[in-house]
Design brief:
Structural class: alpha/beta
Number of domains: 1
Largest sheet: 6 strands, parallel
Low-confidence stretches: 1-19
Bound molecules: NADP nicotinamide-adenine-dinucleotide phosphate
Number of strands: 6
CATH architecture: 3-Layer(aba) Sandwich
CATH class: Alpha Beta
CATH superfamily: NAD(P)-binding Rossmann-like Domain
Strand order of the largest sheet: 3-2-1-4-5-6
Shape: elongated
Distance between the termini: 60 Å
Order of helices and strands: HHHEHEHEHEHEHEHH
Number of helices: 10
Length: about 300
């Protein structure tokens, strides 16, 4: 006898357990998936038809998810072109698409200048860019696109230190943030994504022209087609009615319109101006998304 166990105890417990067990088994056998498996094992003729349905649904789901992913991620660059001797400025290079682009351009031999608003994050990113690319010809400069004063200081520093600028990539961006204004009083997404880059491009344009053939790349988004499709001249800072997604689409439309107009004005100068949608990429851009929206975009960004 074990200490603490009465003679009646174990017998009572085993009676209770066996009753529970039988009842559980009865319930368990009525579970639809158990009935389904039992049916399939005992009726081999039905087996193939019944298997075909879930398999077809599974395969169709995977095919739709994969097709969606391929559609949203867009094209891939397979160019092996070298960029030795070229100088590139890229904004927002401390994370996401900007950082990956900086690594790729440095691997191709370009001199890179990365503009970042947060120097601590910028230093860590610079170290990573240099290590991954194997190039030490990459530099960091402070740039806050939400401050026109900071944009001017950044451009001044480039104009003083560089004798050429072959590629300007206006990449930095902010998406669907709560209502905020830039230091100069513009709605944050329009001010950062468009106005900051507009001023930067204008300040560097003479150097870019002097370095031709050269190019300006404005990272926009497919989002420019999703909003109202117009520039809100009557309420440019969304003071009357702010919706975070409409303000983002608005800023991205401004990127595209700016690109089209500038490319017209630079015709014949050997400066190419393009805007692009980079595809759906999993980055920090969704930092202001609600939990619900983050789940909703998973099929496009896995
Ligand atoms: N990811 C996508 O699926 C997707 C799709 C379409 C278009 N895009 C566009 O791609 C570009 C890059 O986005 P991402 O996906 O790489 O996003 P991300 O990971 O959030 O990177 C955005 C970069 O912009 C910087 N930035 C934000 N506000 C700034 C400011 N005021 N001054 C200077 N830098 C600022 C960020 O710096 P901090 O780290 O300091 O915030 C960061 O380096 C954006 O223009 C975005 O609209 C992305």
């Amino acid at each position: 006898m074990f200490p603490g166990l009465s003679r009646n105890g174990p017998r009572t417990m085993s009676r209770n357990r066996s009753c529970l067990y039988l009842r559980d088994v009865q319930c368990f056998c009525k579970e639809p998936w158990v009935v389904y498996i039992f049916d399939m094992l005992t009726h081999p003729a039905k087996q193939s038809i019944k298997m075909a349905v879930p398999l077809a649904i599974g395969a169709a789901t995977i095919a739709v998810l994969y097709a969606g992913k391929r559609y949203f991620e867009g094209g891939r660059c397979h160019s092996t072109k070298r960029l030795d001797g070229k100088t590139v400025v890229i904004t927002g290079g401390n994370t996401g698409i900007g950082k990956e682009t900086a690594v790729d351009l440095a691997k191709r031999g370009a001199k890179g200048i990365v503009g970042c608003r947060n120097m601590e994050k910028g230093k860590a990113a610079l170290k990573e860019i240099q290590e991954r690319s194997g190039s030490t010809d990459v530099f960091l400069e402070k740039l806050d696109l939400a401050s026109l004063d900071s944009v001017r200081k950044f451009a001044d520093s480039i104009l003083k230190s560089e004798s050429r600028l072959n590629i300007l990539i206006n990449n930095a961006g902010i998406m669907m943030c709560p209502y905020q204004k830039t230091k100069d009083g513009f709605e944050m997404q329009f001010g950062t994504n468009h106005l900051g880059h507009f001023l930067l491009t204008m300040l560097l344009l003479e150097l870019i022209k002097k370095s031709a053939p050269s190019r300006i790349i404005n990272v926009s988004s497919i989002g420019h087609t999703l909003g109202s499709g117009k520039i809100h001249f009557d309420d440019i800072n969304f003071e009357r009615d702010y919706t975070p997604y409409e303000a983002y689409f608005h800023s991205k439309l401004a990127n595209v319109l700016f690109t089209r107009e500038l490319s017209k004005r630079l015709e014949g100068s050997h400066v190419t101006v393009n805007s692009l949608h980079p595809g759906a990429v999993k980055t920090d851009l969704e930092r202001h998304f609600s939990a619900y929206l983050q789940i909703l975009v998973v099929p496009a960004r896995w």
